[in-house]
Amino acid sequence: MSRSIAIDGPAGAGKSTIAKKVSAKLGYIYLDTGAMYRAVALKAIQSGIDTKNQQGLAGIMDKLDIAISHDNNLQKIFLEGADVSEAIRTAEVSAGASNVAAFPEVRLKMVELQRKIAAGADVVMDGRDIGSYVLPDADLKIFLTASVEERARRRFDELLQKGQQVTFEAVRQEMVQRDKNDSSRALAPLVKVPDAIEIDSTALEIDEVVEKIIYFYQNYANIKFEDIS
Ligand code: CDP
Q1: 74 burial class (0-12, 13-18, 19+ CB within 10 angstroms)?
Q2: Tens digit of pLDDT for each residue in 176-187?
Q3: Ordered structural domains, the chain, with CATH
Q4: How far apart are CA 28 and CA 140, in angstroms?
Q5: Which of 55, 103, 189, 200 is buried most deeply by CB count within 10 Å?
Q6: What is the spatial distance between Cα 213 and Cα 141, in angstroms, rounded to a whole number?
Q7: How far apart are the C-alpha atoms of 3 and 214, rounded to whole Å?
Q8: In angstroms, rounded to a whole number, what is the distance separating the alpha carbons of residues 32 and 125?
Q9: How far is the CA of 126 from the centre of ligand 1 (A)?
Q10: Ligand 1 pocket, mutate which of 16, 40, 98 (most atoms under 8 A from CB)
């Protein structure tokens, strides 16, 4: 049986940075499920389909060609063979991803792929519904949060570093809107399940959160291992 750690939480809580570090320490694969919904949104935008158009989306899902590769703990995502790992990181795609993620036609296909990957390898998977829906039997479930201001600040800094032209207020509003969307959709909404451990990362350094997760994994998930790097 392969092992799994599920890390869920709202946008900007630090899930991907932390999941990447935890997976590197354990020698597990890191799977960023948000990248998949982002790739679907990018495809819709490229095809001139409104990301809120359920029928339009359903029409492209059958032929959708999304692939994921893992090299040295680095995930790359490909859309029709092209590496779109960077192209999916814009504010337009973020908002679009939250729209497309509400549709069962999109989710079920993505979840199938996520479960297939988790069945074949030890994984740290981050997203919104990993512990609640994708991997309900995960060995450890973490719900990672932070204050809205802090999450918006982190995302703002990240976008600025990438040279994107954004204002703090626009980033904050987009994030609040996306959290609302993600928490209120009918299928697999963002939710903290009772068996998840909540970590508030507002005042914590990245490595402190990583250490906490490794500690919980060793002590609460019945995992015996000696060689954590
Ligand atoms: O990195 P950030 O937290 O901003 O977002 P992300 O993890 O890349 O996810 C982008 C969007 O995809 C989210 O706002 C969700 O709407 C959707 N998503 C989802 O519905 N389920 C997941 N397991 C992961 C992402």
Answers
A1: exposed
A2: 999 999 999 999
A3: 4-220 (3.40.50.300)
A4: 14
A5: 103
A6: 9
A7: 14
A8: 6
A9: 9
A10: 98
Do the Cβ atoms of 93 and 45 come closer than 8 Å? Answer: yes
d(CA 211, CA 110): 30
Cβ count near 135 (within 10 Å): 22
DSSP 193: -
Instruction: Kindly give the distance from the C-alpha atom of residue 35 to the centroid of ligand 1, in angstroms, as a whole number.
Output: 7
Contacts of 130-138 spanning 24+ positions with Cβ under 8 A: 130/6, 130/7, 130/8, 130/33, 131/6, 131/8, 131/193, 131/195, 131/196, 132/8, 132/188, 132/191, 132/193, 133/188, 134/6, 134/33, 134/188, 135/4, 135/6, 137/4, 138/4, 138/5, 138/6
Asked whether the CA dihedral 63, 190, 35, 172 is positive or negative, the reply is: positive
Is pTM beyond 0.70 here?
Answer: yes
Index of the ligand 1 atom closest to the CA of residue 15: 3
Q: How far apart are CA 33 and CA 172, in angstroms?
A: 22
What is the distance between the alpha carbons of residues 60 and 43, in angstroms, rounded to a whole number?
9
Q: Which of 182, 190, 191 to mutate to test the pocket of ligand 1 (most atoms within 8 A of CB)?
A: 182
